Amino acid sequence: MSAADEVVEVKARKILVAVDEGEESMYALSWAVNNLLVSSNNTTTKDTLILLYVKIPRVVYTTLDGTGRRMNPSTQGYLFSADILSSMEKYSNDVAQCVMEKSRRLCKDLQDVKVETKIENGDPRDAICEVAEKLGVDVLVMGTHGYGMIKRAFLGSVSSHCAYKVKCPVLIVKRPKSSSATRE
Amino acid sequence: MSAADEVVEVKARKILVAVDEGEESMYALSWAVNNLLVSSNNTTTKDTLILLYVKIPRVVYTTLDGTGRRMNPSTQGYLFSADILSSMEKYSNDVAQCVMEKSRRLCKDLQDVKVETKIENGDPRDAICEVAEKLGVDVLVMGTHGYGMIKRAFLGSVSSHCAYKVKCPVLIVKRPKSSSATRE
Question: What is one Pfam family matched by this protein (chains A, B) (predicted)?
């Protein structure tokens, strides 16, 4: 075996990328794919790329509480019928699937990398940190605007929260005004 | 030429790593070397790694102002003799050189990567952002505690400031409690 054929075995890493419906998270994923996961014939990384999408639960209540009593709308929040709740749930699942498919497409050229997807429910700030911790990932990648312009308004900066909380390295990728998400 | 010999040419990147006298920034540099700059025989990146150290100016005044008049110590700040100022300057330069040598040693095994060093004066928060902007770097790497425990106390978090300000991706690397700074 010549030196050129020699396989360099390096320890596999777990790379967690938080994705959402925003273009910025797709750019962050592309950046990670092109800069952290470049593989060649001589290097087998066997890294695992975990794509995480967090569904934010809507603050809604069914028209009946646990005891069967009707709640007071003015104090308990908005009321939605089971049909509307079901439609909203379906829409939320469709968005999650759509984001995951788009993310997977960005990873299609990766060799020697295992791509996994994970969908969680909750506040993205907590969910991302919990998954990073639980899986013991080596690096967390995310866009700055995590979770879109509107959601960000009431969630605050997801990325700065995670950068502060998680113990592993955090890569925050901003999308340039004009960019093609390629290694540059 | 066989497929195994084929050289994959990818666009060269500029990677800026902010280093200081703290162990955390050395860990951040090692992480970047092992995770962003891995090269193999089949991939020539020709990346440039820029090691940046920022010297923080001490708030001191000479005993004479520009016009030759002696300043009032109680209103103008501490007074130091030229000898002491010169010693402090020498010490500061020695620290910078020491950090740079240590940083260079961590990069000694890098192939196809041009390593440059840069020493700036000023507030590290501004200096790092300015260099990143001016050089148009592709990624900024830094530890969380940038600029040591004591300096951090009055400088605030350098990394969070830079993560907010710079336009390029920012990789914030925290040093685990027990770590060997290797790719893991």
Answer: Usp
Is the ipTM, as predicted for this complex, more than 0.90? no
Residue contact A13–B36, C-beta within 8 A? no
CATH assignment of the domain containing B41: 3.40.50.620
Give domain status of residue B151, yes or no.
yes
CB spacing of B10 vs A176 below 8 angstroms: no
A165 neighbourhood in chain B, CB within 8 Å: none
Distance, in Å, from the CA atom of A141 to the CA atom of A174, rounded to the nearest integer, reads 11
Supply the range of the domain harboring residue A109. Answer: 10-173
For A104-124, write each residue's pLDDT tens digit: 999 998 888 999 999 999 989
Tokens 């010549």 appear where? A2
Q: Tell me how far apart the alpha carbons of residues B123 and B56 are, in angstroms, rounded to a whole number.
A: 6
Q: Is B171 on the interface with A (CB under 8 A)?
A: yes
pLDDT digits (tens, 9 = 90+) for B75-109: 445 567 888 888 888 888 999 999 999 999 999 98
Could you tell me which residues come within 8 angstroms of residue A88 by beta carbon, excluding any fewer than 6 positions away? A58, A60, A80
